[in-house]
Protein: Putative DNA-binding pseudobarrel domain-containing protein
Organism: Helianthus annuus
Amino acid sequence: MFYILPVLHPRLRFLNSAIQRFSNRYTNLYLLWVRVHQVTEHWFCREMNRADQLIMAIPDDAASKLWGVDKGPTNVMIHTEDGCVFNVFLSASKGKIFFFHGWSNVVVHLGLTKGCLVVFNPLDPTTFKLTSFVDGVSRGSS
């Protein structure tokens, strides 16, 4: 069933490679489909690499939809599924916006490492609900 998700939901097409990797390694992926369907229109996700543990780029299309072409806010609040809230400052460099100061606290708290999938669902322009999948399982699913 999970392999047909990109066909059923066109917004998931760019996730195809991450979905295939996760579906080959883990069995709880139905939760990913359910959680992604419950997010707003401007959600974005990323499969983490080592650099993302210190600073994570916000995709250009997501940033422009959230904040327009002007400069974004100086900081955002990130809510995790276990109820914690983190104040994360944003930094701009070379036309990109990054989660910067405070992002490493989120990474440590959730135990995010290379290969984890993170899904950001904006609740408003300065607040995100973060769903993370470590070893294919969402922390909120336990």
